[in-house]
Amino acid sequence: MSKLITIVLVAVLAVVAWRLLTPARTPLQVPDPQEWWGPVEMKGKQDKSVRPFKIKFDEAMIINLKQRLKKHRPFTPPLEGIAFQYGFNTEQLEGYLKYWSEEYPFREREKAFNRFPQYKTNIQGLDIHFIRVKPQVTQGVTVVPLLLLHGWPGSLREFFEAIPLLTQQRPGYDFVFEVIAPSMPGFGYSDAAVRPGLGPNQMGVIYRNLMHRLGFKKYYIQAGNWGNIIATAMVTFYPEDVLGLHDNAPFIMSNGATFKTFFGALIPSLVVESHLADRMYPLSWLFSYALEEYGYCHLQATKPDTVGVALGDSPAGLAAYILEKFSTWTHRAHRSLPDGGLNKYTKEQLIDNLMFYWAPNSFTTAIRIYANHFTKENLALEIDDYPTAVPAWFLQAKSELFYQPPSILEMKFTNVLNYTVLDYGGHFFALELPEEFADDVFKAVTAFRHWHNINKTKL
Fold it and tell me: Is the pTM for the entire model greater than 0.85?
């Protein structure tokens, strides 16, 4: 009798596993490519031209910002023996606020922000801000379009060191990149939607329309953070557009991925290579980490406008909230360091990133992406259940927030050409290690071009 029960249980588990790993798929629902996100009264009246744009730090804004930084209330001192385990250490915060108010060279940084040609164009009712850098090339060198996608709490600032490396010819390569790097809708200097629903899936439609507006019917994508989810939508909705995806934060959410993750907790060797198992297991560590570090996600997915009032009004609060992510997301162990490990970056780099939120007052509209994504309607699209054959190349840094092995990622991405698995680096890889970042992108696109040549697809 016990043997029969065992057989039945195994059979039931097999059926459950089969159902989770081979989900029934309804026809893919592609968002409306003309869905209007701007004011209703402007529909049909938008200027579709591509207009030059320069970032301008208003003098009144600078004066107001400095006053706020200098007149903040006294901070509650940290507990004895605590570094960043309770959040941003307020003793450390004072130094950043002093730098921002007294030493940060606003006008010099304004010029630095404008070192790359920038533009705006209206897509589906929203003025989308983007950097576009065209390289100078010699005969025989091909220029290929690369769409760079950032996320939160980053900005276009993450790419400033990498863009020159991507747009300059280098020995051994017969191509170089023309970089198009947009600010996400609601982020920085891109307009925010005036109604709910603009999540990463819908942003993928906007970016595709942007690339077509600029004359690119086919292009490569580099993505991380929210850019990963946007890019995943794009290679799912428009696989004929995307020549290849380079992703430094690959992650899929599906029933099959969840099943494999939990199954691997019992027999890790069936899911992940032994030398990488500690990036996933034990699950108790993963759950503990999520509980400790992801409260912000719940807040921003449920009450973005409430937290936005506080952080959009207080530059001290904004600095503590965002810089803490640059500490712990670069390396988890940084919570135990007196300076939070932020010496990986310069104060100028970190404050530059804050300025993309403070100067245009975009913090609230930026974090609404969480609430717009985690809705029944968006999650019901189940994008990660639809495989894509777009060639992919994944860079997986040691301290990326989550790690998924090929056995999981290839449930979605059926044509992964390579995994660059590193024993160093963190979530903000392009900012932290721009040379390694650019090197890997060049290698990836070389592989994509070779794959297309073999398969005789049009480049």
Answer: yes
